[in-house]
Amino acid sequence: MAFKKNRSKQDIHDNPIDLFRSLSRRKFPTEMPHQRAIIESYVKESLKSKDVALQLPTGSGKTLVGTLIGEWRRRKFNQRVVFLCPTRQLVNQTVEQCREKYGMDVLGFTGSKKIYDPSAIAEYRQCRKIAITTYQSVFNTRPFFDDADTIIIDDAHAAENYISKMWSLELSITDEKSKAALQAVSNILKPHIGRLDFSILNGDAKSFADVGWVDKIPTPILCKIADPLTEALDVHAHGTDLSFSWQLLREHLMACHVYISYGEILIRPLVPPTWTLSAFEAAKHRIYMSATLGEGGDLERLTGREVVSRLAAPSGYNLESVGRRFFMFPGMSLQEGDIQDLRLELIKKSGRAVILTPSKKVALKAIEKIEEIGFPFFSAEDIEVSKTAFTQEKNAVAVLAGRYDGLDFPDDECRMLCVDNLPKASNLQERFFSRKMGAELLLSSRIQTRVIQAIGRCTRSLQDRSAVFISGEELQDYLTDKNLRQHLLPELQAEIDFGVEQSIGVSSSDFKDNYEIFLENGDDWHEVDGNIISEIKTMQKIDFPASAELAASVRNEVRYQKAIWASDYEKALEEARSVLGHLSAPELRGYRALWHYLAGSAAFLLSLQGNRAATETSKDQFRSAIKAATNLPWTSTLLPKNELNDAEISTDREIALQVERIEGKLIKLGMSHDRKFAELEREILQGINGTKNFERAQVLLGDLLGFSSGNDESDAAPDPWWLGETTGIVFEDYVGAEQETLGANKARQAASHPRWLKEKVAAAEGCDILSVLVGPVTKAHEGAFPHLTTVSYWSTEDFRAWAFNALATLRQLKTQLHREGDLAWRADAAKTLDQSGLSMAAIRSERLNNIAAEMLSPA
Description:
By secondary structure, this protein is an alpha/beta fold. The chain contains 34 helices and 25 strands. The strands form five sheets. Strands 3-4-2-5-10-1-11 form a seven-stranded parallel sheet. It has a six-stranded parallel sheet with strand order 12-17-16-13-15-14, with helices on both faces.
């Protein structure tokens, strides 16, 4: 063959703008003003920064900005450039945009590196073209792209799980590949966690599974079990996918945290140690493209960087105008069944629709409903390479499980977006911060970004419009809470305000009529649009509280993680104290308690290296964690009771745990309305006041009161039971008795229930269980009395009156609860439960004053 001719050199332009204007195949005549402004700012201010974040909101063309800067750096500095996307679909989409719209010849890399085109690899490595690929191609134990000079991260605001996953060992009882490992680890943990916790972890006690129960193993305990834990995971990870993350964590176990939940275990560091990944750390330049820069240093926590310089969206650029959304909140007026029927009707009117769900389980339920109307459905995998199969169908539904970013459906591709709830915490660490430490404020910016990403899947430009059908209590509560809504941009506030107003006190037919007006896009809808625009002018965005303090502390937080990862516990303690020096706002009490704990952990580990003074420092920091937020039951486990004074243990752990669980239950029932609470209240009252469903009502009441509540219909089993952490109650219900006299057999049965419960229910093993007889009897046969000396008596009418008052108190607590992890509410709730006789200790104390042998008369 003939020798190749010399390859012509590409022009080197002074800036990316000149480069773009020279691309003859581009479909755009020129860049937009805001794109030009932020590129010029980048060249002027951040060209030599190691880490820089560029803010451009959804629909503003940040893909062009990012890829253009990458292409310019490749040419200007002869650099290898990698542009990272969250998903393969986005890789394909970005490659198509670069080639077809921007006139840039780029390389796309997806799938196994074994199938990468050798010619494409050579072109990338010779700096001839930039590479577009997924996060996983860099954040990997054996990254293919380990030599990039510039790394550009698209959708950095959504990067947390993509990045942290590399350093996260996740075990699940529902995953056959890791189930045995979870069981082995739970057996190692068993002596160090509560009986109820052990049962929930193994999927036995289900009553708290729906309120997001989560816990964490304190560092002193982790130290005790480090050797057997390491040996067990060595065995179970060998030859499996678990080995990839485990090999990174194994030698740094003391720098990690072990979180447990219903059938789940997560082991990971607080901040992903990206500085240990050469493929990322060695890059000369890292750019984070984001729709939001995040308040309070969140981007640094997500990426493990001490400092990220920020370039905000250009002054004067309208950040808010990314299409128009018509929000519908059917849960504010309709029952669950009616909501699902309405959604199907609106989907039929729409033709194409997208449903976002938090899990595959919820997605399967949605698909079952879609099959009723005969529409074809598509998963994320079905449209990952191309959306054509979906968009070419006149009638179709895309059901995307756990995907709130990445897949876009602009213009006429889809007008109907259904968001079926949204888990605010995407992993156990976030859930622990929020529910156990009352530190949801730390996650506020992150949660807000996820919500905005979810509701913006079908509005990607100024001209776009979509209906957003919200179902599920958690997301509805979040969007309709005025206190949270004030932190959104004014346009989104106005859209939600309009949606709330149109969703209260209306029928299904009203929703359908309004949707027809939206679809027609005629004069009536234009009038609505004008009203929303007018409302925007009356609103303003308010920053989250304490954002400045969180931003100030983040550099020390990352340094703490670096030090403890390197086993430099003295430096870690120093950095933790520096973090605490920044956290003084009352809203940060829970987060401050967390950092006192982390400081105490560093001191504890330092003491194991022979530093005697660190022993007392550790205890002092653990005491400070307890004092910082006295209503956090988790902190009360950090020190033995004999090392705490009365003031430090004044908060009863049992009540604090009960309050925590009540909060989760009330949130699950919904805070934007009382309908679900009222339905549950009605079922309990009807059951308690009758005899047929009395036992079920007892179970539901115990669950609502924050106890582990259950029932068993097997032979010789007791009636319902309520369990706390170390004590409990088991009932013998005799409410349907037609005679006033209690027989010996019934008395013997009631007396034996505690033993049965301890033998048959794992959560009750070792608990102090009190048997309680509920019934209308006033007398007992002589043979019954020997068995009634350990059985409490509760007359049916007294129990019914008590249950009525309990529900009234719980309703009052619900009206006072405005957000998850509110430490002030928890303190008031604990006091209310105690004073109202609704804590386990108070119930048992009253029942012990009513022993059946003393209360009943001889027949």
